[in-house]
TrEMBL record:
Protein name as annotated: N5-carboxyaminoimidazole ribonucleotide synthase
Residues binding ATP: 106, 146, 151-157, 181-184, 189, 212, 266-267
Keyword Acetylation applies: no
Keyword Mitochondrion: no
UniProt organism field: Hyalangium rubrum
The EC number(s) this enzyme carries: 6.3.4.18
Length: 378
């Protein structure tokens, strides 16, 4: 399996903040980078060698970028298969189109997880309104109904409290295939990041402990304050999953720790992930550098946590408030860093950046970053 050395060219499908941060790490390692994104002002545009402005469904543009690259990867999984396959004709695509085809459809994803014996909560894929109503009844009434395709940062899913709310959920989600998941009694939400190279080398980061508000990640801790047996089990599940999928690149496994102690898989993301932004300040190797190493078949970096860290997301709501964010208030705080994504258009709920903080413990890091967020008006 060919190794792509510094000086080579990496192509990224997607130019959002994850792509931008991957580009900056690739630059540090001496790579050239190209990107493709439908937004002419995408965050990665300002840091790449070339940016192709094209819809993700434009297979010709994907192929054009791939011709100029030694490897192609992605920062968002919602790339049509035709574009993925077009790129793969001209350069290695990591992760593969087969991985993306499974992950892109919640029904297929859950069916794969079930077939391979990974633990999940009760669920059912349904294709019409009446089937959804009866499924909600069978699952106990309280469910999360999620579109099989699409959806991001809490979009594409509707909580229902009883079968009477099922018809509205069906209409709200576009009257197309959905997955109904039984609502569970959660003790914690966590995620595990696995890096896997084409040569089969793996590296697993400690689980992150995550807190969501309105189904968008609000803050995250690394390493998560979890019992050792939970950390061990979560790590084993994620590593086994990456190997079963033969992932080349990154795989993040979102999990639920239930109040009864069970650990269940929620969803998969074969790309850098919001819950591991803290690796930039906590670990010897950030998730973004690790992504570059993995897709280039280079030796993977150490995942050692040298100091606990926490992040808080900064949403567009903050920019829409009177006077906007006062960044000077947080830049003077010890142990706190500001990370902005270069987005020009602030909208409610849109991720514009994040704050990170380090501490002697995860709890101290969280207290610092939350104090900084409060100073900004979060």
């Amino acid at each position: 399996m060919k190794t792509i050395l510094p000086g080579g060219t990496i192509g990224i499908l997607g130019g959002g903040q994850l792509g931008r941060m991957m580009v900056l790490s690739a630059r540090t390692l001496g790579f050239q980078v190209q990107a493709l994104d439908p937004d002419p002002a995408c965050p990665a545009r300002w840091v790449v060698d070339q940016c192709y402005t094209a819809d993700f469904s434009d297979a010709r543009a994907a192929a054009q970028m791939a011709r100029a690259c030694d490897v192609v990867t992605l920062e968002i999984e919602k790339i049509p298969l035709a574009s993925l396959n077009a790129a793969a004709e001209h350069a290695p695509l990591r992760p593969s189109a087969a991985v993306l085809e499974m992950v892109q459809h919640r029904g297929r994803q859950k069916a794969w997880l079930a077939k391979n014996g990974f633990p999940m909560g009760p669920w059912q894929e349904v294709n019409d309104a009446e089937a959804l109503r009866t499924t909600v009844v069978a699952l106990g009434g309280r469910c999360f109904v999620k579109s099989c395709e699409g959806g991001y940062d809490g979009r594409g899913q509707v909580p229902v409290k009883s079968a009477t709310e099922a018809p509205q959920a069906w209409r709200e989600l576009g009257e197309r295939a959905v997955v109904a998941e039984q609502a569970l009694e959660l003790q914690a939400e966590l995620s595990v990041l696995v890096a896997r190279s084409p040569r089969g080398e793996t590296a697993v980061y400690p689980p992150a402990f995550n807190h969501h508000e309105e189904r968008i990640l609000a803050w995250s801790l690394l390493p998560g304050p979890l019992p050792p047996e939970v950390t061990k089990k979560a790590t084993e599940i994620a590593r086994d999953m990456a190997n079963a999928l033969q992932v080349e690149g990154l795989l993040v496994v979102e999990m639920f720790l239930l109040k009864d102690g069970r650990l269940l898989v929620n969803e998969l993301a074969p790309r850098p992930h919001n819950s591991f932004h803290a690796t930039e300040v906590a670990c010897l190797t950030s998730q973004f550098e690790q992504a570059v190493r993995a897709v280039c078949n280079l030796p993977l970096g150490s995942v050692e946590v040298v100091r606990p860290a926490a992040i808080v997301n900064l949403l567009g709501d903050l920019w829409l408030s009177e006077g906007g964010p006062r960044f000077e208030q947080v830049l003077s705080m010890p142990g706190v860093r500001l990370h902005l994504y270069g987005k020009r258009d602030a909208r409610k709920g849109r991720k514009m950046g994040h704050l990170s903080a380090v501490g002697a413990t995860s709890e101290e890091a969280l207290a610092r970053v939350q104090a900084a967020a409060q100073a900004l008006g979060v």
